[in-house]
Amino acid sequence: MTSDSTLPDIVSSVAPPSGGVNHNLQVRFKNEEGKLLLILPAETETSSSSSWADIWQQLKQRLNAGDRFWQPNTTVHLAAADRLLDGRQLQAVAEALGEVQLTLKRVYTSRRQTAVAAATAGYSVEQQTPSALNQPLTSSVPLAEPLYLQMAVRSGVEIRHSGTVILVGDINPGGIVVANGDILVWGRLRGIAHAGADGNSKCLIMALQMEPTQLRIADYVARAPTTQLTQVYPEIAHVTPEGIRISIAADFSKSQFLSS
Length: 260
What we know:
It is a single chain. The protein is of the alpha/beta class. It has helices spanning 52-64, 87-99, 112-120, 249-259; strands at 28-32, 35-39, 74-79, 102-109, 124-127, 147-150, 158-161, 165-168, 176-179, 183-189, 192-195, 205-210, 214-217, 220-223, 235-240, 243-248. A ten-stranded mixed sheet has the order 1-2-3-4-5-7-9-11-13-14. A six-stranded mixed sheet has the order 6-8-10-12-15-16. The radius of gyration is 21 Å and the shape is elongated. The chain starts with 27 loop residues before the first strand and ends with a helix.
């Protein structure tokens, strides 16, 4: 995590050649597809000598403005771009939003450290590569580096990542993990897991204890079996010609080695 002094700030006075205000370099709110977005300017677009204090000042000005257009108790999606935010800064943003009856729900970011901090704090997270941020997921977008998390994905929390997700902890009922790559759960998978979200049906979902509400690999969907297992083994969900199948990890590994 980073300290305040290392975060570039917003250059609120920068204007384009036409003389107008460049809104891409400012903290701003935007209604988009029924969502209220809190948008931070990309770090690559602003001065490298600025500070978190400037972003914080602009945020407070926006929240205290007289022309508020949101309804009370509206949820907010924070579009952090490539900004490096730690847990303390995310908490400060959430508390500032709470003072005007807004609730921080989800964080969009291209920075792994920000994604980890947000997920650990209990927010839904969508991490994508910088080239794919705020764009539809497509198979032409390369996979990002794996996202490692040590936490429980609680009910109502959704984690999205454009690579593989490795989770040391549980996915609780009501929790969701979506990945363009594989999903590895070193714990109990009791929520929803969607691997190969960009269409790769060769991706896998692995868990020490597989009790999902729903499994998805690419466009294939499977629900949890109705029968309860008497013994628990690490298992792997994979796509076969008949759809998604769940295999004991040891047996799956043997079959893979024999067929290779």
